[in-house]
Specification:
- Strands 3, 4, 5, 10 and 11 form a 5-stranded antiparallel β-sheet that branches. Strands 6, 7, 8 and 9 form a 4-stranded antiparallel β-sheet that branches.
- Helix 3 (about 135-145) packs antiparallel against helix 4.
- The chain has helices at about 45-50, 95-105, 135-145, 180-195, and strands at about 15, 25, 80-90, 120, 125-130, 150-160, 170-175, 205-210, 215-220, 220-225, 230-235.
- Helices cover about 20% and strands about 25% of the residues.
- The chain is an alpha+beta fold.
Length: about 240
Amino acid sequence: MSAAPLVGYSSSGSEDESEDGMRTRPGDGSHRRGQSPLPRQRFPVPDSVLNMFPGTEEGPEDDSTKHGGRVRTFPHERGNWATHVYVPYEAKEEFLDLLDVLLPHAQTYVPRLVRMKVFHLSLSQSVVLRHHWILPFVQALKARMTSFHRFFFTANQVKIYTNQEKTRTFIGLEVTSGHAQFLDLVSEVDRVMEEFNLTTFYQAIVDGFEDAEVLLRVHTEQVRCKSGNKFFSMPLK
């Protein structure tokens, strides 16, 4: 049983019906039985158009000499932002004098050691955060930091640290007085990390360094979060 057509066409002088019931129109690209179709001419695509859609996306150049010797620990991917929570430290004269003493001595063992330009106390390790999670992540951090008051801490013992991937070693000062307050800050940051299924902090002391005659006393006033090229400040009460 054949189905009735939805639309009926009347014959005209400009249409020809083929043997199988198909109708053709002049210029519609079809052809009659026994006739060869006209060849179609294809024009080449300009190079300017082809180059608009490269097959692979090239990430930024990963040159550790341009980043203080840091080596990327995870591959670059568009939309992923390296994120780190820390307490900033503005270096004072006594701290810079200490570096002038320590660095030449340490370079006799590790010649590639370099002097950093900015200093901080880490409250987290570097983690990967998707761009659309940056603001919710920072808001969660701010909510956790609201109950903390400003405090003083001291650091008087030189230590050698390394990151978990064993790609970077650095010399730091271990916090003594104020240690409990920092542990409380790390604990709250860890809770935020867990909310976003990110890795919590780790203890990365690998060896002791000879004791130095130094006493560094610092007033902690804020916590910062760096995500990619964005900085967020969370002042303490």
